[in-house]
Amino acid sequence: MNVELISVGTELLLGNIVNTNANYLSRKCAELGLSLYYQITVGDNKKRLVNVLKECYKRSDIIILTGGLGPTEDDITKETVAEVINRELVPDEESKKRIKAYFDFRNTSSDASGISANNWKQALKIEDSIVITNDNGTAPGYIVEVMDTAVLKKSTGKGKRIILLPGPPSEMIPMFEKSIFPYLKQLQDTVFVSKMVKICGIGESKAETQILDLIEGQSNPTIAPYAKSGEVHFRVTASAKDTEEANRMLEPLLDELKKRFGDHIYTMNEEETLEEVVVKLLHQKKLTLATAESCTGGLFTGRIVNVPGASDVLKEGYITYSNGSKMHLVGVKEETLEVYGAVSEQTAGEMAEGAAKAAGTDTAVAITGIAGPDGGTSLKPVGLVYVSCYVKGNVVIRECHFRGDRQKVRDQTVISALDLLRRNI
User: Fold this and answer.
1) Which one of 22, 24, 27, 134 is most buried, by most CB atoms within 10 A?
2) pLDDT per residue over 352-394, tens digit each?
3) Is the pTM of this model over 0.85?
4) Is 2.60.40.730 the CATH classification of the domain at 274-424?
5) How would DSSP label each residue in 149-162?
């Protein structure tokens, strides 16, 4: 089945907000095995939205709209869809109850009834639509099943499905996960099962070269590469009549990928991040962690702190940006800095060992480098970074050379440091 995404909102066209909904929905369509051929962004303009809907209706089986379901005058999605498919807007009693309960809870009063007329607009549904409950806001979503004759002048014998979801990701994503994903899944005759093989410590070109024969010879299952900053991901997907068969089809290919990439693979769980893997390993091995960061300025520590439960393993984080802080906070020798410089293998090693000693931890990660855009020399160019890892008396140091702007160098450095720690604990 062909799917099309329509993102509604002038703020998207102006670049005031990033369209993360489209990114999320694209991934979910791929997971469901749906063919996504078009994505369109349209402003809060009824005439243009009508034209877009009619065009989408000609070429797509499923149309998913996000945005424009709020209580204000420029929220026009529901009204415009109803007009295009020749249906009325009718009161929905359950939506009324939920809106009243929402405002009762917030103790909001904007007219005699306690709720403004604009908010009651959200209790109207498209005639004969399926209402999708919003547990995090007042705007429900809708699934509308229609025959193509509702818009087209002649019938192709196909039904169409139009799905309307609110724009805020905190509302849209839970609604999609809870209601829309299962609905779309049951429409499929074929089951699709995907695994995401996540790799770090090896570049995209080299990774693809190592499995080029598998990519060129693919049919079912398929392999699709995705490059991220400092990482390479491969989505492996099998289609079959049921989940069990699809998983059986995936096993030989996943085993082959494990054989070829070895410990470069850090997870096959799509939702799991590299920092989550590291924190989990520290938990499992009952190890504690300290950090000493120069050019990353706490970026590494922030990634660790993002993981729930990090407080059980992370004991101290030092920002050692200056030479003085390197000496006073983590005990780097003045002689080391004078002879080898702040950006050196020797300094990185002393930073890691000194951080562990100062914090009394089993492990430590230290980072020192030149993120740019200035500060580089012919001997120590911009992008040169030393990452070191201390684990129970042993120090491992990695010399890295990164390209890109200041932020890219820092981001890649953090990935390299997480990977180094993962491999040594």
Assistant:
1) 134
2) 999 999 999 999 999 999 999 999 999 999 999 999 999 999 9
3) no
4) no
5) GGTSSS--S-EEEE
